[in-house]
């Protein structure tokens, strides 16, 4: 295979894996946080406002790691410096 | 194999794996959240409205990671820039 | 192997794996949700209507991730753009 | 190996794996749901009708993911478009 | 290896793996269901009739996924369309 | 290797693996069921007859999945249609 | 390697693996059953006769899956039809 | 493949893997911390301020390990000294 | 490698693996049984005689699966029919 | 590949893996420590000062293992003695 | 490699693996038994003599599986019949 | 590849792996110890001095295993006797 | 590679693996025993002498399995009969 | 590769792996022992002297297995008899 094809293939596979692998654990983790929130509300309905507020901050933090992976994945597909360099050559 | 075929194969395999692997953990996670919601309702029926509302927000957050994977998968099948470049050449 | 055969093989294997791997966790997850629903009903029979309603919404959300995988699998078998392109050529 | 043989082999292996892997988790999941149903009946015999009804709906949902895999497997053995195309050629 | 041998080998290996892998989880699952049934009977002997009835329905559902795998396995050994096609040729 | 040897080797390995892998989980599962039965008898000695009866039915169901694997294994060793076909040729 | 050597090697490796892998889970399972029996006797010494009787029946069932594997292993070493066929030739 | 291509491919794959693998555990860990925070608030609503403060410090520490991986990943894509050296040559 | 060497190597490796893998789970299982026996004696010192008797019968059953593996291993080293056949030739 | 390229590739891959693998467990471990701190504060709000102080010392110790990995990773990218030696040659 | 070297290497590797793998589980198992013994003594100091006696019998049984592996390992290093045969030749 | 390059590559990869793998478990272990310390302080605030003192001694012991790995890693990068020997030659 | 080198390499790798793998589980197991001893002392301080005595006997038994692996490892490095034979030749 | 290089590479990789793998479990195990010690002190502050003394003896035993691995590792790097033999030649 020539250089261009090899880099294209590596980018495709890596982009897919980065998103799929990188989204696994944030998903698990958000499920855990949501489940804890629901149990906590059931246990202490009066604290629902502060619980949901803390939950949303936490979900945002967790989601950020999924975002990192999605960003790397998009960079590899649409703004890949190695691909740009090879194509430009 | 020529360049076109290699890229097509890499895209097909990656698209399939990205969706299937990326949907595993959101599914688990939603099951966990739903299970927690059901237990919470059984424990505190009066808090059912706020529990189901929090549940739906949480499910939407979790589903979003599955959506990322599905989106990457669709990009690889229907809007693959590397494939477009090779075909155009 | 020629291009056509390679793409056909990649599509067959990926379609099978996508469905089988992608259906594993939704199945587990639905089992978990159903089990939680049954325990909740046994614990609080009066809340059965809201529990089953929440359960069905949850099952629909979980099933959706299995549907994504099945859809990708069907696209790869019956509406594969790479195969169409190679055959057309 | 020629094209026909390769596609046949890929179809055979994928069909077998899709069914066997895809049936693992629904089986586990149904066992979990049945076990939960039995414990629930033992705990609350009066709610047996609604528990068994919810159980059967849940089992049908879980079985559906096993059915998807079996369907893909049957398509690959008896209605494989790639095989049809190669044979027709 | 010639085509016939390759297809025979793939069929043999896949048939064996499909049955052995596909029977693992139904076996685990049935054990879980039976164990739950026994505990439930010990806890609530009066509900034994409905528990054993629900158990048998559940075992039938779980066994069905093992049957799918056994059926695919038998198809691959005794009614393999690819083998038939190659032999006929 | 010639065709006959390849098929013989594949049959030997598959037969061994099918039995050994396929017997793992039924064994675990029967142990679980027996353990549950023993605990149940210790907890409710009066229900021993119905517990042992349910246990034996359950063990028979579980053993059946091990039997499937043993049958496939015996077919591959002593009634292998592919081997018969090659030898006949 | 010639045919005879290949089949001999496959038989040796498969025989060893079948016994060692196939004996793992029955061993675990018997340990579980024995442990449950001991706890049950400690909890309900009066039920010792029926507990040990049920234990022995259960151990026999579990041992049977180990026996299947040992039998397949012995067949492969001392009564291997493929080896007999090749040697006879 | 020439040197430039090899280094480009290694950088792409490593960058993707570093981010995706390195973000898995921080995500899990943040989910655990958030879940513990929510349970703690439900248990002791009066301590909510100190709990959320400790939570945020902890999340920052955990996030830092994800940041290390993201930084290494960005260095490999946009400031790779080996790539610079090869290109300069 | 010639036939004799190949069979010798396969026998050596298989003999070692069969014993080491096959002794893993019986060891675990005996530890479990002994641990259960010790707890049971501590809980019910009066039942020590019947507990130790049941323990020894159980240990003998569990040890038997390790013996199977050791026997197969010794057969492969000292009474290997395939080696005998090759040497005789 | 020439020496320079090989060493560059090995350094890139190792640097990425060292950081990503080496940051996994510290992240998990910090999450565990933070979760324990939060539960402890909820249980004993009066001991919050000493708990947070012990937590921060502990987090620093745990973070140190992640730092080791990050340092090795940076050495491999920016101060690699083997690369320096090859380049100097 | 010539026959002698191959057999020597296979013996070395197998001897090492057999001992190391085969000693893993007995070690775990003895730890479990010792831990159970210590807890039992703490719970029932009066039964210490019978507990330690049962413990030592159990440890001997568990150690026996490690001994099997060590024996096979020593046979392979110092009394290997295949090596003897090749050397004699 | 020539000798120098091979040794350099082996040293780089091994150094990275040794640090990253060797730091995983000490990190987990320190997290466990810190978590236990925090729970213990919350349970018995009066014993805080002796608990933190024992904790720090324990952390030092655990950190020592991570130090061993870091030391081996540094030896391989900066004081590798094999590399010195080859370079000197 | 010539015979001497091959045997040297196999001995080096096996010696390292035997010690490292073989020391894993005894370490875990001793930790478990020590932890159980500490809990037992805390629960029953009066029984400390007999607990520590039983602990030391148990630790010696567990350490013995690590010693077996270390011995095999030392034999392979310093008293390897195969190496001696090849060198003598 | 020549003999010297091969042995050097095998020694480097094995030394690294032996230390890193061999230090994993002692680290875990020490963490477990320390955690148990801390809980025990919190539960029974009066027994702190004997608990810490038993802890240090236990840690020394556990550390010894890590020392074995470190020693083997150092022997392979600085006192490798095979390397000495090859270099001397």
UniProtKB/TrEMBL annotation, chains A, B, C, D, E, F, G, H, I, J, K, L, M, N:
Listed SUPFAM superfamilies: F1F0 ATP synthase subunit C
Site-annotated residues for Reversibly protonated during proton transport: 63
Residue ranges of the TM segments: 55-79
Domain V-ATPase proteolipid subunit C-like: 13-76
Keywords: ATP synthesis, Cell membrane, CF(0), Hydrogen ion transport, Ion transport, Lipid-binding, Membrane, Transmembrane, Transmembrane helix, Transport
Pfam families named among the record's database cross-references: ATP-synt_C
UniProt cross-references to Gene3D superfamilies, sorted A to Z: lithium bound rotor ring of v- atpase
Main location: membrane
Protein's membrane topology: Multi-pass membrane protein
HAMAP family assigned: ATP_synth_c_bact (MF_01396)
Protein family membership: Belongs to the ATPase C chain family.
Function, in words: Key component of the F(0) channel; it plays a direct role in translocation across the membrane. A homomeric c-ring of between 10-14 subunits forms the central stalk rotor element with the F(1) delta and epsilon subunits. F(1)F(0) ATP synthase produces ATP from ADP in the presence of a proton or sodium gradient. F-type ATPases consist of two structural domains, F(1) containing the extramembraneous catalytic core and F(0) containing the membrane proton channel, linked together by a central stalk and a peripheral stalk. During catalysis, ATP synthesis in the catalytic domain of F(1) is coupled via a rotary mechanism of the central stalk subunits to proton translocation.
Descriptive protein name: ATP synthase subunit c
Species per Swiss-Prot/TrEMBL record: Chryseobacterium gotjawalense
